[in-house]
Amino acid sequence: ISIISFHIPPSTHTQQTALLAHMRKVVIIVKPTRSRKLLSVHDYHVYFRVLALLFAVEEINKDPNLLPNITLGFHIYNTQPNEFSTLETQSVAVIGGETSELSIQINTLLNLYKFPQISYGPFDPFLSNKVNFPSVYQLASKDSGLALGMVRLMVHFYWTWVGLVIVDNTRGETFLWDIREKMTRKGVCEAFVEKIPTSDKYINSLGDTMRRINQSSANVIIIYGDTNLLMTLKYVKGHYVICNKVWITTFHWDFVIRPHGMDVKSFDRALVFSDKKKDIPGFKHFLRTLKPSKYPEDTFLKRFWNSVFRCSLDYKISGPKHCLQNTSLEMVSIRYFEMSMSSQSYTIYNAVYAVAWALHKILLTRSEMEYLRDEDSLVLRPWQLHSVLRNIQFNNTVGDQVFMDEKRIAARNYDITNFAIFDNGTEVLVKVGEFIPHAPFGEDLSIHENMIMWNQLYLKIPHSACTEKCGLGFQKSAREGMAICCFDCIPCPEGDISNKTDMNQCIMCPENEYSNKEKNLCLPKMVTFLVYEEPLGITLTFTALAFCVLTVLIIGVFVKTLSYTLLLSLSQCFLSSLLFIGKPNSITCLLQQTIFGITFTIAISTILAKTITVVLVFKAIRPGSRSRKWIGSKTPISIMLICSLIQVILCGIWLLVSPPFPDADPHSEPEYITLQCNIGSLIAFYFVLGYMGFLALVSFSVAFLARNLPDTFNETKFITFSMLVFCSVWISFLPTYQSTKGKTMVAVEVFSILSSSVGLLGCIFFPKCYVILLRPQWNTHEWVNHKSYDSRRHHSKAFPYVS
């Protein structure tokens, strides 16, 4: 263990001499080093912390208000890794270690003797347990905002498919739990999780781990670990240069100052969440003026100088080139040395001041005591430093408040830096943003995208997603059994739009708007209804009027007969279809269905009366028939009136309970708002329609049974055909009416009215008009008697045994 200690030489003051003779050393414990001629790159990193200690000691010695009349000195020991050597130096405090594991190992022994241990490694909540670690103090800022900052960076660049490489220890597990929770909350998915053990016995499996990382579909990788993880990856077998990934690392893993021989090409253009640099006044000047000649007794500095500049300070030795007098640490690449103070060096700087202020406070307290001749009573034991250390707080030279109370330590603020390796081997770290955890949302993360140097494989910001984004007009559809970031893109349904990318669900347009073809914009609907001016309205109107006129003309042929009533009702049926054309209003809506139902009921009732009359006539001509009393004009008129009255009652109930009313239908047609009549009660509508169907079925049945009566006096065949046409029209009307939308639904009903009316008119009256107008000779007694005689002869031959 490299032990760097500083001591306080005895003062000329008698009282202080007795006191400070036992306050000789404070120890800083860092990573082990080996005795060799040249230092490794990692040793440079260690020695940089020694320089922070040296700077703090010199700064304290120059401060007249801190430990006045006391000059601090220091010794650097390169000893064997033995914790007992630390205790033999009569230290009162220990500053160490670099990792939590090292601090725990040191604590095992130091806690037995109550030695205060100030850890300069990353803040670990595990070490805050004062039951297990009562002598450990932490000064580093908390990393509670690191996971949030990384997730905010993912969201900023729309990275939703991210791999995680985590060191396999308690800190790694804590970070993994934290970042998983925040990724889930922001809709970011983990492509994989690789846990890297730091034990040597697992090193052989690291090659497979790197291969899996390289083959992953995730282009962004989060790596979290400390220096031990960096040392572990150095021994990966094989040459694994992963150039197609964007790495996001932390300051805990400093691959800038890295182990000797480690290849970091895989991490070119990585984004690093580093601690905000603290510009300690005078520190850069201290480094600029640092030379081996200034500290001739520091053998480590000489070796450091020889290794960095590849030169020799001994001018008597031939071989390596001699070091120039004007060499300065400013000339060293960041791979070997940084002029700014690192986060761990800053913690060491504060730790030295914390111990100094504790000693200063004890010195003031003891100076106020009465002089005691027994010098042993003034001996300061390590455990006595705890009461002072745990309450120490002060402002350092930067102006930051330093607390030894871990509950008051604030969360760390981060600089986001971009690590780049140029073709000539030059390595740079460029600040491209920052993250402040406690700042308001939107102000916590700032990124200068134009300053980021991405990998040469990417011409623009890298893309990392399980599936491509869903464009405008599409919505996400989750893939069963996969992460939420893996989905399919399906088009929005009719009437819905998505005006943003990656929408989980399309949004519905308002009722007065419809979605365009691309399903990314809602457009206002146009008001429409079946009008007279359009071709469909003109055709239906012309048809209705033409057949109405034709019906009126036929009425003149059948004046004063039962057919007169039938023709008159049929003419009204044709005219009732006009109520369905034009802009609906309250009156037309009330009249549409009622006029249609009543006029058609009168027509069908009349046909039923005609059919029954024909049957009664043929039955009445038989001898002894009782049907003669029903023959006359009252019977068919009564049938017609009774059947029609029932329909009038049904329509009256409909109008009283739930009458039709004007309505607007924004759903039937996507681009239009259809003005139409709402029928009100659907049950009443089907009752009216069903009653007409019932009368038509009865008429059809009676006419069908009477079809074999003599043709001369029988028109039941024509009635049968007419009812067959009527029933066919309205049976096909129901499914067609239900399947159509908008004004087409109205046109279907108008067409059904016209076609059924034409069917009745054509099947019943066209044959009669043909005889009356074109074959008048067939309408004479001679022709009727002749046809009747032929019919009886045919009937007798066909049925010889029937009289």
From TrEMBL:
PROSITE patterns: G_PROTEIN_RECEP_F3_3 (PS00981), G_PROTEIN_RECEP_F3_4 (PS50259). It is a multi-pass membrane protein. It is found in: Cell membrane. Pfam families: 7tm_3, ANF_receptor, NCD3G. Keywords: Cell membrane, G-protein coupled receptor, Glycoprotein, Membrane, Receptor, Signal, Transducer, Transmembrane, Transmembrane helix. Residues 560-788 form the G-protein coupled receptors family 3 profile domain. SUPFAM superfamilies: Periplasmic binding protein-like I. InterPro entries: ANF_lig-bd_rcpt, GPCR_3, GPCR_3_9-Cys_dom, GPCR_3_9-Cys_sf, GPCR_3_C, GPCR_3_Ca_sens_rcpt-rel, GPCR_3_CS, GPCR_3_vmron_rcpt_2. The chain crosses the membrane at residues 536-559, 566-582, 594-618, 639-657, 683-706, 718-738, 750-773. One of its GO terms (molecular function) is G protein-coupled receptor activity. GO terms for cellular component: plasma membrane. Belongs to the G-protein coupled receptor 3 family. PANTHER family: CALCIUM-SENSING RECEPTOR-RELATED, VOMERONASAL 2, RECEPTOR 118-RELATED. This is G-protein coupled receptors family 3 profile domain-containing protein. It comes from Sarcophilus harrisii. The lineage of its organism: Eukaryota, Metazoa, Chordata, Craniata, Vertebrata.
